[in-house]
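Record type: monomer structure entry
Structure origin: computed from sequence
Chain ID: A
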Amino acid sequence: MEREQEIAKLVNVLRRTSRMALQSEWTGGAADTAAFCVEQYNRVLARLKELDGTNVVIFEPLATGSSLTVAAMACRQLAAFYEDEVPPQRGDRKWTKEMPFFDPRPFKEFWEKSARDIEDFGEYIRESIEEWARQRQAKSADSPPNPEHKRD
């Protein structure tokens, strides 16, 4: 596998590991989840150091007991270090070809800065909606009906 392609794959692993760590933090993840995310970050960092040794000297492996939040932050920082080398994830070129009247630069800048956070939030909602519905159904089953509340 060529260097650029492997770096792109490793950056993708970092992004997803960060997302998993944050979601686990939000939902009360177990200690083994934090350990997995820390180990994953450390393995990716070691491989990046093999591929790109002198460029990643500012990054250090995470300590064994690091939290999910620390693992997520470390993954995002390391992924950000390679953003210039990694090709865009979505078809940015389509915007300029299909919509020549539209200047995509401001939107592209916004999307590059915020898309991952928006995507993380959306994914968290999708993964949590079933649990929220179950909790709501359990509450409504346990509480007596309110005579003043009419259902349509």
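Annotation 1: The first helix runs from residue 3 to 26.
Annotation 2: Residues 89-142 form one domain.
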